[in-house]
Structure prediction request, 219 residues.
Amino acid sequence: MNINKFKNKKGFTLIELLIVIAIIGILAAIAIPTYLSYVNRAKDSEAYTNLGAIFTDETAFNATNSFFMSFADPSGKTFPTATTALAIHGFVPSGTTPIAYAGSPFTCSGLTSSAVGTLQTSTGGTITKVAGNGAATIGFIPAGMVYFIYNVTAEAPAPTQPASYGVYPSTVPSADATSLECGSGFLGYAAGNLNGSNLQIFANDSYAQTIGLLAGTTY
Prediction:
């Protein structure tokens, strides 16, 4: 084999390769956090969108029934903690279908609504009710997977200041709401922990559609 033809061939030196690797590392260190921030901002937008939908649905429900409905997130996910990431999940439990309830207008007596849950499962010709939940009753059923859990607490009396101003509520919630309660006002929560170290709680209420951040930081 004639190796002379390779003698004048030049390649990369070790120093040049190390410099390239260092440059790639620097670019990755800058780009990856920026990319993740954009991704998490997009996830945050889910909370704003769905809390806006809750405000619309609760307002329409109140126009017909003269009270607001409370509900706990039917997904089975519990209120997130400050140290545990909340996994992406379906709002409606697997195998469950929301079925429109024919019975409006409902009544509200002693902060308890006459409405019943409308999340049901169907196996063959048998329909089984899932635990009563007011989300489907007011028509709030997000499609697909979500990053936050959603709770609405019926309030009496109604709030007099918007949640976004930090005046109402006075405390941050630490647990799920109780479904099918009723009142003259409501407070809606979107709670999530996208990375395991930033518990976010967004809120809006029946006073104003403006959505505020009660806990955590936005991305």
Observations:
- The two ends are 62 Å apart (CA to CA).
- The CA atoms of residues 36 and 99 lie 38 Å apart.
